[in-house]
Amino acid sequence: MDISSFISSFSLFRLKRSVILGVKSLWMHKLRSLLTALGIVFGVCSVIAMLAIGEGASYEAQQQIKDLGSQNIIIESVKPTNTNAGEQERSTILEYGLTYKDVSQIRATVPGIQVAVPGRRVKDFLWNESKSVDGTALGTVPWFPSMKNREVLRGRFFSELEMDDSSPVCVLTRSLRRQLFPLQEPIGRTVRVQSSYFRVVGIIEDSPVVAAEADMEGASDKGAGMEMMIPITTLEDHFGEVLFKRRSGSFEAEKVELHEVTLRIDEADQVMPAAQAVQHILERNHKEVDYKMTVPLDLLRRAERTKQIFNIVLGSIAAISLLVGGIGIMNIMLATVTERTREIGIRRALGAKKKDIVMQFLIETILLSGAGGLIGVALGVTIPIAITHFADMVTIIQFWAPTLAFTISVLIGVLFGIYPAIRAAGMNPVEALRHE
Length: 436
Description:
Number of strands: 13
Strand order of the largest sheet: 3-4-9-6-8-7
Strand content: 15-25%
Shape: elongated
Radius of gyration: 35 Å
Oligomer: single chain
Largest sheet: 6 strands, mixed, barrel
Order of helices and strands: HHEHEHEEHEHEHEEHEHEEEHEHHHHH
Structural class: alpha+beta
Distance between the termini: 45 Å
Helix content: 55-70%
């Protein structure tokens, strides 16, 4: 065996012996060691669990926005709140919102618009024989599912031929189907709105927003998602230009050409410039703000920024927990140095060097913080899984989170163990031997 191999094996032996001595020292004071490590345990656990919960909440929010379409611009009619009272007295019909003129100008002026989906709503009771639901009939176009990222679950969506012929057909949302046809097969049956009957040809999934709200509340709101889609030409033929509402003795008449319009832009990088151009056209055509524009791409970017801020806040809270745990370790190690003063003196008298004493106390500190880190990782992974199982909340554990949290716990052990180790190594051997 050459000299380098001998030195290497001797160093490994000394390291192994130091680790064994460190484990024995910590095991002699099991309760104190456990209480000391709790700060690291909770710090590591909170890092992993908070990041998992925050990542899950962010994922759900971003997924809802993506379901709206990252290349879409959604414009909705909004009833103005500052309507002139004198004008209302002279006219019994309230006219507001988007018009076909707006759509034609937008398509002719704004470049890059691939397709547009108009929508017009009639809110009334939807009937299946004697069973009724307070819902909405939405007049739209055959390419509605592809534009809105909505899957047809059963049957089919109505066709362009049916729209051209103003056919009395309809497609129900999943929530409406459950309310109107809880025990019946809806395909082929009819739904009545006022005095008009519509034949059911398909079932479509709820909108992402309605589905998310139902998941958060634990049960579907009876007023949410109660919607059926019919050809927009059919809606205009059956209900006319002016929509009348009769509820509980009250009467209201509204003239709204379009309640919503969804625009699809060719390129994602052209969405924001197109949105500004659309905003300019609407401002020019409308004297008052009777519309609302939503740009999912902009919402997605805001959600990503919010996620970054959220992670920084959660990381800061967890870092404080780890800092407190590190201070606890330093405090206990300083007390340990005082208790073991005579042992340090004996080891120095027998030939141990300062670096041996430093290594001994650093190893004990790393063992303490490492054990706390491992327990914290186990708890930090278990808590998000339990939350997902019992609270039905989405949690996402990033692969790097446990590794990062454990590495930080070990580094904190090293950082807060250096001073006690140096203090132990700096003791005068003669005075240490005389210590009682």
